[in-house]
Amino acid sequence: MGAGKTDTKKGRPAGTADAKRALAVLAAFKRLYPDPRHYLKFENPFQLLVATILSAQCTDEKVNEVTAGLFGKYRGPADFASAPVEAIERDVRPTGFYRNKAKAVKGAAAAIVERYGGSVPGTMDELLTLPGVARKSANAILQHGFGIVEGVVVDTHVIRVAGRLEWTANTDPGKIEHDLVRLFDRKEWRWLPFYLKSHGRAVCKAPTPKCGDCAVAALCPSALIGPPEAPWQKAPRSAAPRRKTPRRAVRSKRSGRGERRHRNPIHRFLFSPPCDKSHPRGSF
Questions:
Q1: Roughly how many angstroms between the first and final C-alpha of the chain, as a whole number?
Q2: Which three-class secondary structure state does DSSP give residue 13?
Q3: Residue among 60, 67, 61, 50 at smallest CA distance from 103
Q4: Contact criterion met (CB below 8 Å) for 225 and 217
Q5: Rounded to two decimals, what is the model's pTM?
Q6: Distance CA 66, CA 94 (A)
Q7: What is the pLDDT of residues 151-195, one digit of tens each?
Q8: CA 199 to CA 191: how far, in whole Å?
Q9: Tens digits of per-residue pLDDT, 45-67?
Q10: Distance from C-alpha of 19 to C-alpha of 37, rounded to nearest angstrom
């Protein structure tokens, strides 16, 4: 949604406090993180495609560490397509889920060589036909590989921070992207994920955000006021304490005497006098 449109999903027209608050938060992020860039290192669209596939469930730092040697060994799609998948598995193993990732990289490279003449396609529909490429990856490749902006890249940091800011009430990446493109103008789409990711890595961490260090805490509806209260710090209940009822002696059903009977069977066995001649320590 642009700044002058209506969010029909939530029924809030632009210009309300929520839309103004979102723009104010974005302006603050631009001041906090003034150097927008892509966290993955690459030199061409194909390297970005490979790095994006390897980044699933892996840190950007580890991916950059692996691709530094990987791109020196495999120069392009043809090298990946002709290499044994076992060799690629060994090279990408540090990124985790290496079997699936190696299979996806090799499959994508083979498809690029066979169907697109060795060049990464430059449209959303074509990119989505490649193994290992979903909408998030396709958006990143188009934006940073071709300069084409069709949507917003939604990763785990975007999901978390946008949800805490109440820019979306969804958890599905596709629906979150839909909410964000309705909330912000197209000119903000490319670097919006960078700002949310940078803030998510620095301050709005999972599972506990550092709200005391957050520059936009006053604009965040989910901001915590101080750390969560420990159980032993909670104020006592206002209700009057329960009156302690004194115990009464439990009369023995056998003897009728007013002696105390042990409720624990073990104690009864150890401490009660024998009352049944058929058992050396009494009867249970």
A1: 77
A2: strand
A3: 50
A4: no
A5: 0.72
A6: 7
A7: 999 999 999 999 999 999 999 999 999 999 999 999 999 999 999
A8: 13
A9: 999 999 999 999 999 999 999 99
A10: 26
